[in-house]
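So, can you check what follows?
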Amino acid sequence: MSWFYSEPVDIAFGNGKIKDLYTILNDLNLKNGILVADPIFAQNGLASKVIEYSKGLLLATFFDITPNPEVESVDKCADLIREKKLEFVLALGGGSSLDCAKAAASVAKTNDSIVLYHSEGKKFGRESLPLIAVPTTAGTGSEVTPVAVLSDPKKGIKAPLVCNNFYPKLAIVDPELTLTVPKKVTASTGVDVLSHALEGFWSINHQPICDAMALHASELVFKYLLRAYNDGNDIEAREKMAEASLIAGLAFGLPKTTGSHACSFPLTSVYHIPHGEACAFTLDAFVRINGAKDEKINTFAKKLGFKDYNEMADKILAMKKEMGLKTTLEEAGIKLEDVDKLAELSQHPNMLNNPVKMSLDDIKNLYLSLK
């Protein structure tokens, strides 16, 4: 086996870590920054607290971000950065704000629209503004990856954009910031963590370091996700899920995601299922499909304490049901006559990373198994 590993993001992890923001930014010689955050944080006071913790180093704010960040938001954010001549970006929130900030930090160094890079094939140069990522959900792992998932409603496209510029300079992971996350979001982001870990493990591009992290992250999810879901104030569960999210981000960052994520894009863009829930919608089915033909997935399941890969798939399905996530076509609002089209839309390049090659008929039959 020949493989390569690199992780350029510095990580500061710990409860209450955000309160050290001024010292962290000052040590990095960062000033004149912009806070890019989910709009809810403008309302609940967290944005104001973060600005206060920066002691004047954050000079502007941007809150115009939708749950599936759109190219228009990226362009607006970049325009503000250029207009005010800002020098760094701090992203606060879930995957949406982090992805928007990643793209804006690079496109702001050009005179372009992000559309040129997202769907028209243009490549970024090496210039970008320093980015500090502060996740408030235990889910995407975006704080340690070079990926930004963006939507372009005018073109009907939701797709990941990958660029080494998108690696944050530093990730500040403070589990206390996840204490107020609603149950539904805890569930959706939590199963996203498991999707990242499992897909990173069985990806055709997997490698030993990422395999080890995938196993660790998966173990944490199976042990702590339901605890965090049932009691949002369980600080141990929140801390362990924040750890799992971060480690799973490292586990899939280089191998890339596979079939579940390929299917998630149309499930989100067409049926408006939240990203993590959309990934998990097919995850247990892919465990069975891949596990039947790849012995290492059976070994992985046994290391996690399961009898075999089928028992692991059963556990994932049971967790989804306990948390009220969609598990059938009917629950997802998918009509049988729409399955052919959905299968076509699921032929995203990520599907090529799946260890079992999936034909159009295979994808269709996968969906039909979820009736």
